[in-house]
Amino acid sequence: MTGNRPRRPARRSRVRSLPPGTSLFTPDATPARASAERRSAQPLLFLHQLPVWIAPVAAAVLLVTGLAVRGPGGAV
């Protein structure tokens, strides 16, 4: 019966859309804020494209690792 098994539909990766609005930057921001927004835009867009479950799993892994490792390594 190996040839009669129904095929599973292919899984699609969901890409989350960007937040609504025309710009990712604050209009009329101070130079320091504008510089910080420009530097953080690329990492934030990368994180936005990751699956939603990554953040809680990463936090749990860091918590367990921090509790298991002694000394400065666990504190980091």
Radius of gyration, in angstroms, nearest whole number: 21 Å
Structural class: mainly alpha
Mean of pLDDT: 82
Q: What portion of residues belong to β-strands?
A: under 5%
Name the shape in a single word. flat
Helix proportion of residues, in percent? 40-55%
Main pleated-sheet profile = none
Report how far the terminal alpha carbons are from each other: 54 Å
- Show unreliable segments: none
Number of strands: 0
**N to C succession of SSEs:** HHH
Number of distinct helices: 3
Walk me through the structure.
- There is one protein chain.
- This protein has 76 residues and is an all-alpha fold.
- Helix content is 50%, strand content 0%.
- The chain contains three helices and no strands.
- The termini are far apart.
- The mean pLDDT is 82.
Question: Which descriptors apply to this entry?
Answer:
76 residues, mainly alpha, flat
Draw up the topology in text.
Blueprint lengths: L30 H19 L4 H15 L3 H4 L1
Short description:
With 76 residues, the protein is mainly α. The protein has helices spanning 31-49, 54-68, 72-75. Helix content is 50%, strand content 0%.
